[in-house]
């Protein structure tokens, strides 16, 4: 499935629709260039899942947790050099957990520990605020 967002409002609308299909135990792998809007998308989904606080990029902390209608785990693997660092961060344990939804930015950095079933969301920059979202669901 593909969706083109011409602006941030379209992105929020797509995030709302996307969030309505998420279940506990889902793993969402987010790919795209720096600045593509991976964290912006997670922020919009978290809001749809009932989280009212601040959503920030976990680039330096590796993991941010949010509480909404279900727990939301938000990982950013950009700065990692190996899958063993991801294991130390707790990613493998969260991936085995089915109590919430897990978002992983830069999943290609930890390909060796990713689950077989996931939702891949690739974000392509088309313009200032325009984005193409491509979803592949292997659940």
Give the helices and strands, then pairings.
Elements: E1 2-5, H1 8-19, E2 27-31, H2 38-48, E3 63-67, E4 71-76, H3 83-89, H4 91-96, E5 101-105, E6 119-125, E7 131-137
Parallel strand pairs: 2-5, 2-6, 4-5
Antiparallel strand pairs: 1-7, 3-4, 6-7
Distance between the termini: 14 Å
**Count of beta strands:** 7
**Cα shape:** globular
Per DSSP, the total helix count is: 4
Roughly what is the average pLDDT, rounded to an integer? 91
- N-to-C SSE string, H for helix and E for strand: EHEHEEHHEEE
User: Structural class from helices and strands?
Assistant: alpha/beta
* Widest sheet: strand ordering: 1-7-6-2-5-4-3
Give the C-alpha Rg: 14 Å
Low-confidence stretches: none
Binned, the helix content reads: 25-40%
What would your notes on this structure say?
With 139 residues, the chain is α/β, with parallel strands linked by helices. It contains four helices and seven strands, in the order βαβαββααβββ. The protein has helices at residues 8-19, 38-48, 83-89, 91-96; strands at 2-5, 27-31, 63-67, 71-76, 101-105, 119-125, 131-137. Strands 1-7-6-2-5-4-3 form a seven-stranded mixed beta sheet. A hairpin with a 3-residue loop joins strand 3 (63-67) and strand 4. It is globular and about 40 Å long. The model has no long low-confidence stretch (mean pLDDT 91).
Comma- or semicolon-separated keywords:
139 residues; alpha/beta; 7-stranded mixed beta sheet; 7 strands; globular
